[in-house]
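Kindly inspect the following:
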Amino acid sequence: MYSRYSLMKESDQVDTDGENWPDPLSVNYSNFKFTSIPSQIEINTKYIDKFWTLMYDKYGLSDHDDILLSLNGIPFIGKLEPGDIILKISQDDLENFVTNQSDEDKWYQQ
């Protein structure tokens, strides 16, 4: 499954198993470019309880949810309330999130 964590560099911090934590500041969200105008999605309780159902209903897939939330400026699901509106970013834009990184940010392809 692809997620924003696929783009993150390892940080200097380690967990109890000695594994490096991902560094969320290593992803450059400011380079993101829309290729189409987003529509809107109204959030309901079902989508808050199981956000993957929103992804399946609107996109036909169950990943990329963390990228959609990040691009909408939502740090975690608990910030959403029924009736909130988020942008429905095109599936192509979500899937091309990696290619919208600048060359200097593409450390993960080296």
